[in-house]
Amino acid sequence: LHSEAMEGSETRPSEAVSPKTHTENLLATLPKREGWSTPLLLYNNCWIRPHCLKDAMAVQDKLKPRPDDIILAAHPKCGTTWLKALLFTVLNRPRYTFTDHPLLTVRPHQLVPFIALRPGDLDRAEMLPSPRLLSTHLPLPLLPPAVSTLGCRIVCVCREPKDAFLSRWHFEKKLHQGISLSMDEAFAMFSEGCSPYGPFWDRYLEYWKLKSGQTTRGDVSKV
């Protein structure tokens, strides 16, 4: 009886939790806000859609930054496509003429891939030759720390917040026609900081403050 009691009192080793289960458990504990086309979760001072947060966690775990990476960091609806075209053109100026330029037939999003927006993005980024030209909507705290410590060059585009909000509003209404959030309600949430990848100004301040630690790259310049 004693041995049976001892056997029953032994602490069993905890069962291994899969990364997927761990992520789902974490998402269930985060603050949540309704209103936009899909709910937003607050993680590390960033309001983000659940599926985008899963992608961000994959980026933190799997992306291997390189010192010569060039990362285009832009808030959604703030000129990402435009800046992709400009950067690709500048970096590849000697390679193409006006008649055979890839931008005549290929969208900028295909030429400058997102770090993680669609399945396979991380694998495609890993296969690119250096120097890589990459793009992301993710805030700095959700990127691997090596992006900062290795001195990756970051190009950040900022848009007038009222214009950014209007573009976001029309984009949401077009993409999700069943959205019931009025413009006034959406603007109030945006102003409070609760919008996809918000708070808006916090995102830019994070990248702006990074410049003080990258003295070898020079100061951030206003274009």
UniProtKB/TrEMBL annotation:
SUPFAM superfamilies: P-loop containing nucleoside triphosphate hydrolases. Keywords: Transferase. Pfam families: Sulfotransfer_1. Its EC number is 2.8.2.-. Residues 1-13 have a biased composition (Basic and acidic residues). It is an enzyme of class 2 (transferase). It comes from the Eukaryota. Residues 1-22 are annotated as: Disordered. One of its GO terms (molecular function) is sulfotransferase activity. Residues 67-211 form the Sulfotransferase domain. InterPro entries: P-loop_NTPase (IPR027417), Sulfotransferase_dom (IPR000863). Belongs to the sulfotransferase 1 family. This is Sulfotransferase. It comes from Aegilops tauschii subsp. strangulata (Goatgrass).
